[in-house]
Amino acid sequence: MSPKIAVIVGSIRNDSLNRKLALALAAQGPQDFSFEHVRIDDLPNFNQDLEKDHGEAVKRFKGEIASAAGLLFVTPEYNRSIPGLLKNAIDHGSRPYGQSVWAGKPAGVIGISSGAIGTALAQQHLRNVLAYLDVPTLGQPEAFIQNKEGLLDDKGNIGVEATQKFLKSWMDKYAAFVKQHTKS
Ligand code: FNR
């Protein structure tokens, strides 16, 4: 069975650019990985009073992360940080204390926005959280994608050749990074 990459998209908007980017990345990724979208929109608000049993959705979410060889975070920037929905999912995966599912899972961090700095600050905040959770992240190349008309469609096609080449090379580096962290 091919190793699974858990793809976590920080937007649940119907026409999300980040979901389109996630599809495009999976299409560029090596065939020896399977890319599986992990749902985060059905997770309840994290409440430490309930952290021992937050219910089925949280169990499912933690199981999907625990069984993944690697993580791919594709997130928008909300007010110069990550969306609350994504932070909520990360917090669920980290608890109860001592039962985090994140530690040691190699991760890629990427995103797209309409803004000129293309999610740079959201990515920096996310890296900060992931470092605390002992999640190694691919450092280079960084990927800050600014949306342009026709760049991405719903089927994972990339409309600009230079961006397609860049995302392909980013995925190659990401796949090598995951393999390096999972071979032992
Ligand atoms: C945004 N947007 C945004 N863009 C950006 O580059 N930096 C930012 O800080 C913000 N802040 C922000 C806050 C909130 C609450 C919203 C709703 C939006 C714009 C954002 O990049 C744009 O809406 C993207 O298209 C969102 O990603 P999805 O939903 O298309 O994946």
TrEMBL record:
Molecular-function GO terms, alphabetical: FMN binding; oxidoreductase activity
GO cellular component: cytosol
Superkingdom to which the source organism belongs: Bacteria
InterPro entries linked to this entry: Flavoprotein-like_sf (IPR029039), FMN_Rdtase-like_dom (IPR005025), NAD(P)H-dep_reductase (IPR050712)
Residues covered by the NADPH-dependent FMN reductase-like domain: 3-148
Name this protein carries in UniProt: NAD(P)H-dependent oxidoreductase
Organism of origin: Caenimonas aquaedulcis
